[in-house]
Amino acid sequence: MLSHKAKYALKALLYLAEQDENHISKTIEIADGANIPKKFLEQILLDLKRGRFVSSKQGKFGGYYLIKSKNDITLAEIHRLFDGAIALLPCASLNFYEPCSDCKTEEECSLRHGLMIIRNETLKAMQNITIASLINKK
Amino acid sequence: MLSHKAKYALKALLYLAEQDENHISKTIEIADGANIPKKFLEQILLDLKRGRFVSSKQGKFGGYYLIKSKNDITLAEIHRLFDGAIALLPCASLNFYEPCSDCKTEEECSLRHGLMIIRNETLKAMQNITIASLINKK
DNA sequence: CAAAACCCTACCAAGTAGATAGATTTTATA
DNA sequence: TATAAAATCTATCTACTTGGTAGGGTTTTG
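Output (structure tokens, whole complex):
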């Protein structure tokens, strides 16, 4: 399941993507528009900034804006940024790989192969869902 | 990600599926064979029993055995039993549906449609992974 | 009748999620 | 240059969940 953070991040990105080109959105604007607790959203926006999805302008009339095309922001990326691995176990993960500690037969745990199939399918689907695609289907 | 419970459950089922027909496995046997803390495994086996995947025989020479074919036990079922919904948000779930509380535009939240596509793909993949298929690919 | 298993309830420690609060820095402009 | 508005930083809090452990009680069967 997605964390609230990831869900809010998606909604915030969706909000930003719907604004006019060159428009800069204040945190409070996004919070109201997407129904997200403002102080919580602050942290999320900073994370999105660190992840290079958005950038910000400080000071008066500052705010946030997208720096990545809404066609190029995928659900997979947001999941990884906020909720980590897409695979069901670390040993089946591409970006968050860790060997399982409890596998006697190291290297080839009994679940790994099956979980990698699932991860592949899920990843493919998640890479197909972009912010742009979410807007169209709303 | 899978919880330890779900992972241990899969490993326990795998262990049971690998035994000779009519063999009954003691808890301690499974715990040693699959490297699972014994007392924790007890709870998991009870859950699997309630879920009608295994049954048990009490008393001396008692233990656990599969009552569902290893071809019919899917990863999707085990996930749902131990970790709940397969969808990324409750509003996109088949078996654990709940409306989202924070969506202004109730009924059609902006994420729902995309998340249902993902859930469909993931579910399809998870229904294809059975205990039997895991054994073959080990 | 006691050994060996199943079965149950309670508890606990550590970590995480989901926030909230307040101070500080940056910037535009009057 | 003062001030207001905005992002940014740091810290804290509470409730819940996870991954177990403890210690029995109950039932079956050799």
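Chain B touches chain A through 39 residues (CB under 8 Å).
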